[in-house]
Amino acid sequence: MERRVHRVSVPVATRAPSGRTNAYLVGGSDALLVDPAARTAELDAAVAERGVAHVAATHAHPDHVGAVADYAAETGATVWARRGRERRFETATGVAPDRTFGEGTRIETGDGAVTALDAPGHAADHVAFEIGGFGPAAVLCGDLAVAEGSVVVGAPDGDMRAYLTSLRRLHARNPSRLLPGHGPAVDDPRATLSRLIRHRLDRERRVLAAVRDGTSDVDGVVDAAYEKDLTGVRDLARATVVAHVEKLAHEGKVRWVDGTVRPG
């Protein structure tokens, strides 16, 4: 039986299609508040009802941490950050963390523990939170996965090798449900994670084919790798292609020198 998890969809300046970020409260008392993107009356009421003892974020992008400082000050909650990423967290939130976590750290709420899982790729400091219960656990997955579409993994912060590893690790854990940072819950986690892996590998094949066909500049590779109108999102597509090129260069499949990409 999954422990009580309350989601509040928060309007925020984000380029996610929903225009909203999901904040989550885990636990009926001494709760953990994850990804408070902004203050809203609904989130204020949920925080007041449950009694927040801990505040954390899946990663320190602005559309996930905008109200960390407010809720930490209001509740007196312990503020957590990924160990080794404290400065990044403080710069983004304006709050120095009280405690840090790493892979496997348990954060105790009033009705059980939440376990931190490293899940880098979308961002260097990205983590997920596994909610213990009976049987396979639900996972707050931040921007690791979404029910529909895909997640931006763009250089320089995004790392495509790390992202694919994170997807595969979570797939192997066989979670019961995914609770993402944007959009609805994912009730078919392994199918969704497999879809996201296939999507990334398909894009990688398109990028590699473009380079092998003689395209040497990134913008040309973007045009070859995407078969859709990129109006308004071309910068994201370009950053994603660079992340793919960096992965391919690490694997020796291309050479990436001074902004020019050639077959390896």
Keywords:
alpha/beta, 2 domains, Arc Repressor Mutant, subunit A, Metallo-beta-lactamase, Chain A
Question: How do you describe this structure in short?
Answer:
The chain is α/β, with parallel strands linked by helices. It has helices spanning 41-50, 62-65, 68-75, 86-93, 160-173, 189-212, 218-225, 234-250; strands spanning 5-11, 20-26, 31-34, 52-56, 78-82, 99-101, 106-109, 112-118, 127-131, 138-142, 177-180, 254-257, 260-263.
How many domains is the backbone divided into? 2
Question: Helix proportion of residues, in percent?
Answer: 25-40%
Strand order of the largest sheet: 1-2-3-4-5-6
Number of strands: 13
Radius of gyration: 19 Å
CATH topology of the largest domain: Metallo-beta-lactamase, Chain A
**Sheet of most strands:** 6 strands, mixed
User: Regarding quaternary structure, how should these chains be classified?
Assistant: single chain
Distance between the termini: 51 Å
